[in-house]
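Possible regression after last week's pipeline update?

I re-ran a chain I had predicted before the update to compare outputs. Posting the input and the new output here so someone can diff against the archived version. Not blocking, just want to make sure nothing changed silently.
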Amino acid sequence: MTQTVVYVSCAESREILVFSLDTHSGEIQLRQSLATTEGQPQPLRISPNRRILYAGTRSDSAVLALSIDPASGELAWLGSQPAPGNSTYVSCDRAMRVAFSASYGGNSLSVFPLDEQGALRAASQTEDGLPRAHAALIDGSNRWLLVPTLGADAIRVYRLENDGHLTPNNPAQIQVRPGSGPRHPRFSADNRHIHCLNELDGSIDLFDFDASSGTLTPKQSVSMLPPNFEGKPWAAEIRATPDGRFLYATDRTASTIAAFAVDLQTGAITLIDHYPTEAQPRGMGIDPSGRWLIAAGQLSARLTVYAIDPDTGRLTSAHTHSTGLDPICVEIVSLPNGQPR
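New output (post-update):
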């Protein structure tokens, strides 16, 4: 029997919350609150084998590894390693050989070898001089790592070598629109397209991606800001349904979620609608069934669960639940051997 589990990092209250999600009704129930003594948890990432949750912390600048109980989804301490700068984004490669930590404040990217259990070893490589590095995401071929540098309006591209070392690609980066502030990328399921959310101008850029060379070709740029928007854009998160047909992005100034339809052949996106959501929505996640989107409000300290219409991609608010203070990131996993309790 499968079950779906939701993880939410709450920075100010220094905890990671574990919820169970009923994929029939959308209801969520708190299962565990795990205190993080090593700093304030921010980014989260579930490992490809669904056995480890990686978390980055600020204040103490560390990357944590937490084991996921296959029956309950609850977390247990596996270990940590110090990071050269506060971690803004964590991930690992698809073969689980190395983990990555991007540091916005440290302008850097760190690489951590993983042992057989997925625990972190000491950082083996740090790339400095990456202005406001905001993410580190491996492509579907497990050969290319994208690192958006918000402060340079560029996306760095690294080749992941067989020994886990990163080598800058040639060219080493693609320059994007001045003032856009590239923040979070995502690859299409077929690895042919990249959508990158830009924090500073509230837009989403589409690129064609050549996995043989690791090069990006710009194709489209679309605003994700609501009509009559006033103020400074502050885009935060981008997510897609598992089938890739619908794409969602949050803006913290407007406290909205923008929904888009995706052309699976070209990657082009078309606006569906904007939806008001929790105050200052930093993070959101979509469950593996593609039926539910969960958004977290940093200022409201609350989650809203939305039903995703499978035909249109439109969102309908279904449930809410309180969280700890300053919820940052939402990660969702389906555990095939899970047993409800």
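Follow-up from reviewer: compared with the archived run. The mean pLDDT is 97. Marking as no regression found.
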